[in-house]
């Protein structure tokens, strides 16, 4: 059924991967992220790194939907937009501090997840993909057309979460780390196992008593909340949001991060997200070919290494 | 009123033309070819390149020239579709469906941004435009070029329908759509038939691309994205995998959009179209004329 | 009151009648075999009982409660477990995770537990793993439990599938051809396993083509042919039943192969719908399109 070439790691590779998969890899990554501003702290570098961190959060949210549960969501940016706009509107219109908008954002994104998921999750997986794409566009066009969202020019003057970019960066890193760990914990729990059962074989999962529809909806809602909270960070970082930030391209980039890193693999999607968000900075000269290269890369990854750069390891440690 | 209907039917015939490729490919191998809308874009640009190479065309020769370009373009996009399937989809035919879908997204990106790299990000002005003498028919303002384009579109669709329902080739397609394994056992060359399906669908999309270029006058590398979505919606409305249904779906979506735009305003046009898509998928996922869309147990 | 009772079950796919008025019962802790030639409607009946197909007519009762038309997960929640004719393991997950699937319903754990790794989370996960090991021991799995399920040999995968079904702690277990593809030694072990399952107080219904196994293990045998029950009784009686002999021997026994050729198997391999399979018009209006070689 599945493409070949999953596990043929010799003992050495297995030992290496165990080291990488352990929490040490995550801790090392965190330390790296925390030390980065000491190496380079220009406003530009900080903004790039903050964006990368937010992108990591998006990828870890989408990973719950695509990687764990196997549902292709091509409009994931819709939740990002819902979160950003909700906090943006509330903070500018009602003068709330950004943090105070978070509970509302969670409620709104849960509702958005249910509204988008409930009618579509009964459909075949490929229909779901295109419907989510449609939803992503609907949200963007709606934001573009409504007055409350500021129309095409968006919302300005959103208060930041922190006084300086450095503090904001650290805050973002902490929040994103918590989000990544949370997503990973959910993935290993009863719920996360059920997601994987659904991904592997929906009928067998049903036969074991897994209410596949509810489980899929849960994945959707979790993804929505992660995306929405990332949207709050995004609004706080830029202090201005407009529909142009929430195009299909953005959804596709998050998907690429997940696929490239390794669907269902937490360290994989983190690395994937960092690579996708920093690559353009490294390859400035090839800006025109960037998305072309991403498209080709996506095909090649699926053909040659569908499990991604840092695949999920199904083998359990025998304790 | 009749203007709205006419506009709807006109746009709808474009949707239908693109939707057919979507629908045929889906019907035969249950693949959502996300890159299909980009084949349409490729068609528009191929026509653009050919016209640019040929040089100035006198207005009197516009229609014959367009038809010539159309035929060549259909060949080019058809072959591109075959190539796409061979390179990106065939190796994954037995892979999980998710892999195939992601590959299709990758293919779509490759085509869009490959074209952007080749032709630039700015819209191009089509070198050929059909003269617009308009006539008043039943209260609707209709231009001759619209009539010409609709005739071409209808001719292509009728041709396709004859091909699929009347020929051996078409029968093989339908057989594979029902059961690829048994078809293979019965001696049908499944790969060849799938290739031909891609050829036909992509050729039609390419034709639609050229026609859209000549009609709207401007083309850009992202023009296929939205029409891809619309075409899919058309296919779903009519019943994906069902050829007459898909044509009907295209026309219907055109009409719905035309009226929806009238009532809600142009800025909600796409929202309205996707709303229709979601409504149909929730209420009647098989479409109007569709066969049962079923998940195996 | 019997554990499972199927009353006048009917199921049609388009014009095709897969089950035509089937009735049978299964008592507590009873081992019942359902046999019949290919296409007799055995797997279709299983799919109706477990909720994967919605019967066209008839009722299915579990301990007196009607379960007709319920969602498969709902029926599983009431204590029905099954295996599939062509193994349906979660291939890319570990063997243990596969068996943990059976524990899904009785595992009490919410997302807060999962996020915070509360004591309850740790306890439930530990219990779940212990249970998984327990059932793998029970079915006698020799292979690697920590690796991917698809890496196991076929016979071992069958055991894992049964362990998974047992971890659900069912009152009724439906086994769809558990011995298919097993060698002689493995078949003997399967027979012993089925007996041990019965000792747990679990009723077992099996579809099986291996007559030796069926006659050996069953307390009762239900024979289907063309979607209808033609016999129901003790193995030794059924064996002598003229109708059964005719169904099997009357037309040679080339049916014994479990190839995919006719209606019953199409259920598993083809695009027949899970839910409303009954009202389908798919078969009808594609029928001519199929062009059965009228070229």
Automatic annotation (TrEMBL), chain A:
Transmembrane domains' residue ranges: 24-46, 52-82, 94-118, 167-186, 217-240, 252-279, 291-310
Coiled-coil segments: none
Subcellular location field: Cell membrane
Domain of life: Bacteria
Record's keyword annotation contains Iron: no
Cross-referenced Pfam families: BPD_transp_2
Keywords: Cell membrane, Membrane, Transmembrane, Transmembrane helix
Membrane topology of the entry: Multi-pass membrane protein
The name this protein goes by in its record: Branched-chain amino acid ABC transporter permease
Native source species: Sphaerisporangium corydalis
UniProtKB/TrEMBL annotation, chain B:
Subcellular location: Cell membrane
Membrane topology label: Multi-pass membrane protein
Record-linked InterPro entries: ABC_transp_permease, BCAA_transport_permease
Gene source species: Sphaerisporangium corydalis
Protein name: Branched-chain amino acid ABC transporter permease
Broad class of the protein's primary localization: membrane
Family note: Belongs to the binding-protein-dependent transport system permease family. LivHM subfamily.
Transmembrane annotation, as ranges: 6-27, 39-57, 63-84, 96-115, 144-164, 193-215, 221-240, 247-265, 271-290
Domain of life: Bacteria
Record's keyword annotation contains Membrane: yes
Keywords: Amino-acid transport, Cell inner membrane, Cell membrane, Membrane, Transmembrane, Transmembrane helix, Transport
Pfam families recorded: BPD_transp_2 (PF02653)
Automatic annotation (TrEMBL), chain C:
Biased composition, class Acidic residues, residue ranges: 252-271, 285-295
ABC transporter domain mapped to chain residues: 4-251
Domain of life, per lineage: Bacteria
Pfam families per record: ABC_tran, BCA_ABC_TP_C
InterPro entries the UniProt entry points to: AAA+_ATPase, ABC_AA/LPS_Transport, ABC_transporter-like_ATP-bd, BCA_ABC_TP_C, P-loop_NTPase
Name by which UniProt lists this protein: ABC transporter ATP-binding protein
A GO MF term: ATP binding
Entries under SUPFAM superfamilies matching the protein: P-loop containing nucleoside triphosphate hydrolases
Region annotation Disordered: where it falls in the sequence: 247-295
Alphabetized SMART domains for the sequence: AAA
Biased composition (Basic and acidic residues): 272-284
This protein's UniProt keywords: ATP-binding, Nucleotide-binding, Transport
